[in-house]
Amino acid sequence: MKGKITALVALLACAGCGEKGGDKPADTKGGAPKTEAKAPATEAAPATEAAAAPAKKAWLTVAKYGVQLEVPEGAKAEDAAGTSVMVMSPDGSCTVMLAKKDDMSYFPSYDSTIKEIEQGTMGKKKEMLKNEKTDEQNWVIHYTKENMIEPGKTQYGVDVRKKIGNDEYSCGRITDTEADAKCVLDACNGLKPAEGAGAAPAPGSEAAPGSAPAPGSEAAPGSAP
Fold it and tell me: Which of 24, 98, 133, 201 is most deeply buried (CB count within 10 A of its CB)?
């Protein structure tokens, strides 16, 4: 009996012998061992689209006056109020009001034009950007003013007077953006005699008489109404 008790004690004492000195097995309770999650690679933001290229320009002949000016390709000349002509680009952003001095046109002097701008006849003046006068028949005026219809908004005025041969021309417009004003200013500054003046106009260069001007076309002070 004593031997049996001794053997039992020895058996119990060795029950956990296999756990000593060995590596403890991985705890699999709750499923597979956790792994560190990796943040998904972020895609680089697409490059911003390049700004639209400026419209290609071409020389347009205004056969009615025998002059030409460089404007966006596809622009057309149409009869406007009185004897004036409106030259408008396909999208309408570059619209030039052109007139030749005659008995029916309104051609104020340089001093009167400046006075109208200073007094805010067409809207309160903000800043004079360019005021270059060669003589009473040649000048370039570029300024900013307040929009009369939408106070707080800025508009850009262009008024160019140029003598070509024996004729005097008024060229300009009031625009809503600086870019449109630059287009008008460049076109008016480049006004010159048409090549082969007196020849028949190219098809589509002038609209049929009586066509209505585009809505919102506003002439700058000094240009024909």
Answer: 98
